[in-house]
């Protein structure tokens, strides 16, 4: 922000914003803008987790700085149009690094292209220079090679990038492209989610500063105004076309741009009160306390053990050397790093849509593959068909397309059923409650599903010993975060399933306690309340 206030001019007619303000005001306003960004909801939350988005935020900010530095008016001389060449070269290299970290770097493209061609013109020289800049850009991308060199065919080797086909598929995000640009309906849903969450990022009172910020930007530098506006809008458009639940991290660029606008808004106010601007700028620093106080509860992860607790509840619910078929099992770290319950085989049904994961199961667990070789091979063939023509399966247009979908679903169901059938007599096989609710790929029909803690034991006998009471340990959370809601729903379902099981066996001793624990998770659950009524009538 200091650079934008003190040095930045795209063209000679642009005005330096800090012309009549002291250095203390400049630094205080810049600090305020940075602190407001730091304590905005999504930016803060991503700083607390081991994910790609924290370093992605760093790259976004660095790339904007380098690009603006390279396009400063001092490089607009007709004789030397690329006078700030070192910044362009560094920008191109960092751009490659950023793409190597996360493909959403592409969200910057519309704004950067606009400003580049606005400054240098759309001509042979500017186009030729892009080719020249591709050299450091490709150099930054070479960090991808690490994936190719270090990959193997283990379950932990995401994407199995040890061969060229898998490598290209992984770095281009092929497994995720089915969630991109699917429909106008998906765009609307994600956009509404953005609109709902955006005010919470900075708190309404801080967002009011955007208006004077945009006025000041438009008045002093039209191109910078349009540059930031294009970045903001393109980020929303791109991200809203990605149909995933944890979408908020994809709007990080809007947070960065908003912080810049707020900084300019503060400067607008400083200009209006020049005589007392220095003192007021110190007061404005305290504005960051607003998002800090409002967002602290959700961003504070110091006592957040929900994922760890869920993983250990899964472990404690399973017998030795068992198989668990699930959609969500956050256990890899504990099993492969801390060596907790490495005896358990987890099969993630959702991951089976990825060929690399199917192959990793075949490689890691040859005993499972050998017992169900036919089903594995048939499903592998159908999976190849899906990946070669995804549009046919996602947007069927003919009866043949619908038949292909039904065939694919059947082969997946047959594979899962075969794994259960060929193993349940030798080792316990479990599923988790959410799989039972999926209609298009139901499996384990004909099996009894006996509650064992958070799991359902799949068996054809239903002996008293098949039911095992497990003490589930967790803290109740009402957070609307998708994964937290998912985990809480698993606890709720496990309580309800066990209560129903015991009622059916006329074992009423612990049922009321189970229902009350379900109501702790979902206080408004009509299902739980009706089950409580059923218990009372059964006891009478």
What does this structure look like?
- The chain has 540 residues and is mainly alpha-helical.
- It folds into three domains: 2-299, no CATH class; 306-460, no CATH class; 476-540.
- The protein is built from 26 helices and five strands.
- It has a five-stranded mixed sheet.
- The radius of gyration is 28 Å and the shape is globular.
- The protein starts with a helix and ends with a helix.
- The mean pLDDT is 88.
Widest β-sheet, arrangement of strands = 2-1-3-5-4
Number of strands: 5
Overall average residue pLDDT:
88
**Rg from C-alpha positions?**
28 Å
Q: Percent range for helical residues?
A: 55-70%
Structural class: mainly alpha
Number of domains: 3
What are the segments in which pLDDT stays under 50 over at least 5 consecutive residues?
A: none
In this structure, how is the largest beta sheet organized? Answer: 5 strands, mixed
What portion of residues belong to β-strands?
A: under 5%
Give the overall shape: globular
